[in-house]
Amino acid sequence: MTPLSQFVRNAVRPGVRALSAVPKPAATKSDSNHPNGYSFELNETQLEFRDIARKFVQEEVIPKAAEYDRTME
Q1: Which residues of 6-28 are buried (b: 16+ CB within 10 A; e: fewer)?
Q2: DSSP of 9-71, one letter per residue?
Q3: For the chain, N or C: smaller number of CB within 10 Å?
């Protein structure tokens, strides 16, 4: 595993654990809003986690990715 992927994995892992403790599943039974009866929309916690992950990638990973690729770190 490269240092960059290890860094990203370690940075994201606590958030993943926090989400796994959320009692509500992403797919919840709904009565009539969806044709098949399930909603696969993200809940508020999942949306927040997604936004944090996007921000991290944009601010920390993308600016350094080319250098890590060149140095094989």
Answers
A1: ebbeeeeeebeeeeeeeeeeeee
A2: HHHHHHHHHHHHT-SS-SSEE-SSSSTTSEE----HHHHHHHHHHHHHIIIIIHHHHHHHHHH
A3: N
pTM score of the predicted model = 0.47
Pairing of strands 38-39, 28-29: antiparallel
Q: Which pLDDT does position 56 carry in this prediction?
A: 97
Residues 6+ apart with CB under 8 A from 12: 53, 56
pLDDT of residue 25: 56
Model confidence over 54-65: pLDDT tens digits?
999 999 999 999
